[in-house]
Design goal:
Protein name: Trehalose 6-phosphate phosphatase
Distance between the termini: 40 Å
Shape: globular
Catalytic activity: alpha,alpha-trehalose 6-phosphate + H2O = alpha,alpha-trehalose + phosphate
Largest sheet: 7 strands, mixed
CATH topology of one domain: Rossmann fold
Structural class: alpha/beta
Strand content: 15-25%
CATH architecture of one domain: 3-Layer(aba) Sandwich
Radius of gyration: 18 Å
CATH class of one domain: Alpha Beta
Keywords: Hydrolase, Magnesium, Metal-binding
Pathway: Glycan biosynthesis; trehalose biosynthesis
Bound molecules: ligand L263DTV3
Number of strands: 11
Function: Removes the phosphate from trehalose 6-phosphate to produce free trehalose.
């Protein structure tokens, strides 16, 4: 069996910028902040917000945060940061001034949300709502992950929804939203259009972002351990991401 070569660190940001404009797409959890026991327990490093704002200026506004969290949730951690961003796995896209790129995401039916919330309560899982879906977190009860995923898949099949999985999380979402879609949407518009896109992320849902950047002439950067990936490069952890970003 052939073994693929280990992924190397990406060329430095300075060298990429010397070759032409770069559009940078950054995942949030596991990339800009360390994974924590609960979604609301993350520690946002001091000065992250001002560093992101400066990075956006350095890139001529070609910086977008692309998160599985809702934009409202991101704002509780970052404040009203004036950079482009996409929440709910790319379904909710906004420009730095808060204006929408594309339509507002469609939320799930109230009955569906209530059904998942009841399940979370009964199974002692953490429930999270998003503008275009809802999630069950089982980091505190890993043994409940398999049945939680089966529960969500049953609802998805019945309601014509999709399931996304991630690090100790399973989510119900409308079909069609992924981080690759967010990359494509921003890359069609100035100031992103014509730049070389780079996506940095750690989770399975970031694979769509990696593929979107590769298709548009750029590349993905996997954060964390080696795995099967569409990324061309790798950085070991959040600290390595900060070093690469020159934070
Ligand atoms: O796309 P991202 O910005 O990386 O968001 C992915 C999910 O991140 C959050 O959950 C994850 O991080 C939590 C805090 O570290 C952790 O407790 C949880 O186990 C992880 O799955 C967020 O809560 C989700 O909505 C995002 O989809």
């Amino acid at each position: 069996m052939s073994q693929s070569a280990p992924l190397l660190a990406p060329p430095s940001l300075a060298s990429l910028l010397a070759a032409g404009p770069v559009a940078l797409f950054l995942d949030f959890d596991g990339t800009l902040v360390e994974i924590a026991a609960r979604p609301d327990a993350i520690a946002v490093p001091a000065k992250l917000v001002s560093k992101l704002a400066r990075l956006s200026d350095r890139l001529g506004g070609r910086l977008a945060l692309v998160s599985g969290r809702s934009l409202e949730d991101l704002e509780t951690h970052l404040g009203s940061l004036a950079v482009a961003s996409a929440g709910s796995h790319g379904a909710d896209r906004r420009w730095p001034d808060g204006s929408h790129l594309g339509g507002a995401p469609l939320s799930l039916a109230a009955e569906t949300i209530a059904e998942v919330e009841d399940y979370a309560r009964a199974q002692e899982l953490i429930f999270e709502t998003k503008s275009h879906g809802c999630a069950l977190h089982y980091r505190g009860r890993p043994e409940a992950g398999e049945s939680a995923e089966a529960f969500m898949r049953t609802i998805a099949a019945r309601e014509g929804l999709a399931v996304k999985t991630g690090k100790c999380v399973v989510e119900l979402v409308h079909e069609g939203a992924d981080k690759g879609g967010a990359v494509r949407a921003f890359m069609e518009q100035p100031p992103f259009a014509g730049a070389r896109p780079v996506f940095i992320g750690d989770d399975v849902t970031d694979e769509d972002g990696f593929a979107g950047c590769t298709q548009a002439g750029g590349f993905g950067v996997l954060v964390g351990d080696e795995r099967e990936t569409a990324a061309e490069f790798r950085l070991a952890d959040v600290d390595a991401v900060y070093d690469w970003l020159e934070f």
